[in-house]
Amino acid sequence: MLKVLSENAARTLLNAFNDAGYTEAQVRKHLGAAELPSLQLRNVARLLDRTSTATELNTLLRWFWVGVPVAKANAEKTIPAEMLGLLEQTGLIAEQGENWAATVMLLHTDGFLVAADHPSAIERHEADLVLWPNPTSKFLAKFAIRRHSRATLDLGTGSGILSLQAAAFSDKVIATDLNERAVEMARFNVWLNGIKNVDVVAGDCFAPVAGEKFDLILSNPPFFITPQSDYLFCDNSMELDGLCRRLVKEAPEHLSEGGYLEMLCEWAQVTGERWEDRVAEWLRGTGCDAWVMKGVTQDPEEYAQRRVKEISQDPGGDAEAYAGYMNYYRQRGVEAIHDGLVVIRKREGKNWARIEEVPKTPSGELGEMIVTSFAAQDLLQNADTDEAFLKLRPKLGANVRLEHVCAPKEGRWTTDSLTLRLISGFPFHMAVQPLVAEFLVTCDGTRTAREAIASFAAQVKAPLERVQSECQALLWKLIERGFMTVENS
């Protein structure tokens, strides 16, 4: 069990790690790469060689990165007495014969030092292991809306990394987890990093926060679609994607007006159903606006193989495990499994839902992109007549670029394509014709859509009615995609 000591002890311990060079940059430089030890990568021998010299940093790395014991005599020579005492008092290290062994892994991420279970816990099939900050939690963190929040909920906190980050823009944060070990670990990480406005509690789904409301709910739940519940951090006992559906249905009760839920999830596509339909049903009757961003799609065979590989490094049980997965999917008519991000916002009135596949590798201020995208969709919903839309003043955004590709032809360069492209947020792009590109650049917010379209129709000597219809459709799409901002006239 990890033990929380005084605030001064936390500060002393954190400073000791930093002084020893146990930082994100130094660990990467010292080890040659920030790879976690892995039987699959077969990198343990290299990591042991890199940390073979008896130094303070190498002793810490062997304990809290590689996950091997260190002889007490060697540890006492390399680790300052005060630090060694704190490591033992907190339970970060424990006696193992003539050695001291680490009880957790420690990773620096986004400015925080985070305790989690060592990757070897997967090989030991420890169902309640606490996963280290992984790509999914880091992905969700990029999308977190970092505006002031009176109260933020981190549902399914794991190591607590999302709560640590949310503390900076929240008056208070409540972190919950069904896994008691995760609760213990998250509490320790809150203490170690000197955070004072995060409370960590145990419980299932929204039960620990009954009656409370939040401006922001972040959730990276155990969303894997599997026939068994091997690990609490990724598996759940509900049928297919039932847990994710439940969270979307129950979240509005815990959202303040204008509050957001941002949740990573997976959902199944079953025979006779479009991929959009299943997640659309989750949203019905919630009293929320929604933006569902579909990412990767996998067929059941690919998904099963991936999951089997993740749960064990031993190929001896692959055939049985794979058969179990495939029988589960076939019996339920699963044709594909999709992953993505669901964002809902509680709002009175007529709600809207935007469900779409989005490009990979988004960049920039993604939390702010969420807010501005919801605002743009609101504006479009309010401009529900031609007259209302034509009063808007469209303006090309600062993150828009026109990509001009030329090809050689008969001794000169000729235009091959023109592409409008976003360089921040999702990298949406759209092919445009030269005249359309010239029209769009005149949309600078000084003229109404009606005025800009009329001027363009006169320029190209085309009937205003036809030009207006085509331009309205184009402008609507560009506003929705974030290429344009708008102001009311």
Describe the structure.
This protein has helices at 7-19, 24-31, 44-50, 56-66, 72-78, 81-90, 120-123, 135-143, 161-166, 180-192, 242-250, 275-283, 300-311, 318-331, 366-382, 386-390, 434-441, 449-460, 464-481; strands at residues 70-71, 93-96, 99-102, 105-109, 112-116, 152-155, 173-177, 198-202, 214-219, 255-270, 288-298, 334-346, 353-357, 393-396, 400-409, 412-422, 429-431, 484-487. It is of the alpha/beta class. The strands form five sheets. Strands 8-7-6-9-10-12-11-13 form an eight-stranded mixed sheet, sandwiched between helices. Strands 1-3-2 form a three-stranded antiparallel sheet. Strands 15-16-17 form a three-stranded antiparallel sheet, with no helix packed on it. Strand 7, helix 10 and strand 8 (198-202) form a beta-alpha-beta unit. Helix 18 (449-460) packs across helix 19 (464-481). It is elongated. The mean pLDDT is 95.
Observed structural traits:
alpha/beta; 39% helix; eight-stranded mixed beta sheet; 489 residues
What is the helix tally? 19
- Give the overall shape: elongated
**Mean model confidence by pLDDT:** 95
Secondary structure class reads alpha/beta
Profile the largest sheet: 8 strands, mixed
- Could you give the count of β-strands? 18
- How far is the first residue's CA from the last residue's CA? 62 Å
How much helicity do the residues have? 25-40%
Computed over alpha carbons, the radius of gyration is 27 Å
